[in-house]
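TOPIC: backbone geometry
CONTENTS: sequence, C-alpha coordinates:
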Amino acid sequence: MAKKDRTPRTAEEKDREKWMARFQVRLAMQPGVDREVVLRAVKEVTVHCADTGTHPRTAFGDPDDHAVQVAARLVPADRAARQRRRDAALDAVDSALEKTRDITGL
Protein backbone atom coordinates (compact mmCIF):
# COMPACT_ATOMS: atom_id res chain seq x y z
CA MET A 1 0.00 0.00 0.00
CA ALA A 2 1.32 3.41 -0.95
CA LYS A 3 1.97 5.92 1.79
CA LYS A 4 0.14 9.22 1.68
CA ASP A 5 2.24 12.21 0.80
CA ARG A 6 2.55 14.00 4.11
CA THR A 7 4.37 17.02 2.73
CA PRO A 8 2.59 20.07 4.07
CA ARG A 9 1.02 22.12 1.33
CA THR A 10 1.23 25.85 1.46
CA ALA A 11 -1.83 28.06 1.48
CA GLU A 12 -0.92 29.19 -2.05
CA GLU A 13 -0.86 25.58 -3.32
CA LYS A 14 -4.25 24.91 -1.74
CA ASP A 15 -5.66 28.10 -3.28
CA ARG A 16 -4.23 27.12 -6.70
CA GLU A 17 -5.89 23.69 -6.42
CA LYS A 18 -9.22 25.27 -5.45
CA TRP A 19 -9.00 27.68 -8.40
CA MET A 20 -8.26 24.85 -10.83
CA ALA A 21 -11.06 22.67 -9.45
CA ARG A 22 -13.58 25.49 -9.72
CA PHE A 23 -12.39 26.33 -13.23
CA GLN A 24 -12.74 22.72 -14.38
CA VAL A 25 -16.25 22.35 -12.95
CA ARG A 26 -17.47 25.66 -14.38
CA LEU A 27 -15.91 24.89 -17.75
CA ALA A 28 -17.52 21.46 -17.88
CA MET A 29 -20.90 23.09 -17.23
CA GLN A 30 -20.64 25.33 -20.31
CA PRO A 31 -22.75 24.31 -23.35
CA GLY A 32 -20.89 22.11 -25.82
CA VAL A 33 -17.84 21.55 -23.62
CA ASP A 34 -16.54 17.99 -23.69
CA ARG A 35 -13.64 16.21 -22.01
CA GLU A 36 -11.22 17.24 -24.76
CA VAL A 37 -11.97 20.92 -24.24
CA VAL A 38 -11.54 20.65 -20.47
CA LEU A 39 -8.22 18.82 -20.81
CA ARG A 40 -6.94 21.33 -23.36
CA ALA A 41 -7.93 24.31 -21.21
CA VAL A 42 -6.43 22.82 -18.04
CA LYS A 43 -3.20 22.16 -19.91
CA GLU A 44 -3.12 25.75 -21.17
CA VAL A 45 -3.57 27.15 -17.67
CA THR A 46 -1.10 24.72 -16.11
CA VAL A 47 1.61 25.35 -18.70
CA HIS A 48 1.17 29.12 -18.56
CA CYS A 49 1.36 29.20 -14.76
CA ALA A 50 4.37 26.87 -14.70
CA ASP A 51 6.20 28.93 -17.33
CA THR A 52 5.47 32.29 -15.74
CA GLY A 53 5.40 31.26 -12.09
CA THR A 54 2.10 33.06 -11.61
CA HIS A 55 -0.99 31.96 -9.74
CA PRO A 56 -3.97 31.17 -12.03
CA ARG A 57 -6.04 33.91 -10.37
CA THR A 58 -3.32 36.45 -11.16
CA ALA A 59 -2.95 35.26 -14.75
CA PHE A 60 -6.60 34.56 -15.63
CA GLY A 61 -8.78 36.20 -12.97
CA ASP A 62 -11.96 34.64 -11.65
CA PRO A 63 -12.25 30.92 -12.54
CA ASP A 64 -15.95 31.25 -13.45
CA ASP A 65 -15.29 34.13 -15.85
CA HIS A 66 -12.29 32.40 -17.36
CA ALA A 67 -14.35 29.22 -17.92
CA VAL A 68 -16.94 31.20 -19.90
CA GLN A 69 -14.22 32.87 -21.98
CA VAL A 70 -12.42 29.59 -22.69
CA ALA A 71 -15.66 27.87 -23.70
CA ALA A 72 -16.45 30.71 -26.09
CA ARG A 73 -12.99 30.39 -27.62
CA LEU A 74 -12.69 26.58 -27.81
CA VAL A 75 -16.25 25.39 -28.48
CA PRO A 76 -17.67 25.92 -31.98
CA ALA A 77 -20.70 28.21 -31.79
CA ASP A 78 -22.99 25.72 -33.56
CA ARG A 79 -22.12 22.96 -31.07
CA ALA A 80 -22.78 25.26 -28.10
CA ALA A 81 -26.11 26.37 -29.61
CA ARG A 82 -27.14 22.77 -30.24
CA GLN A 83 -26.36 21.89 -26.60
CA ARG A 84 -28.35 24.89 -25.34
CA ARG A 85 -31.38 23.79 -27.38
CA ARG A 86 -31.04 20.22 -26.10
CA ASP A 87 -30.76 21.46 -22.52
CA ALA A 88 -33.84 23.68 -22.95
CA ALA A 89 -35.85 20.76 -24.32
CA LEU A 90 -34.81 18.54 -21.41
CA ASP A 91 -35.70 21.27 -18.93
CA ALA A 92 -39.17 21.55 -20.51
CA VAL A 93 -39.71 17.79 -20.25
CA ASP A 94 -38.52 17.77 -16.63
CA SER A 95 -40.88 20.63 -15.82
CA ALA A 96 -43.83 18.83 -17.44
CA LEU A 97 -43.02 15.64 -15.54
CA GLU A 98 -42.84 17.56 -12.26
CA LYS A 99 -46.25 19.12 -12.92
CA THR A 100 -47.67 15.69 -13.76
CA ARG A 101 -46.31 14.25 -10.52
CA ASP A 102 -47.82 17.16 -8.56
CA ILE A 103 -51.22 16.62 -10.17
CA THR A 104 -51.26 12.84 -9.83
CA GLY A 105 -49.58 12.76 -6.43
CA LEU A 106 -46.92 10.28 -7.56
Q: What stands out?
A: Residues 77-104 form the longest helix (28 residues). Residues 30 and 71 are 7 Å apart (CA to CA). The chain has a mean pLDDT of 84.
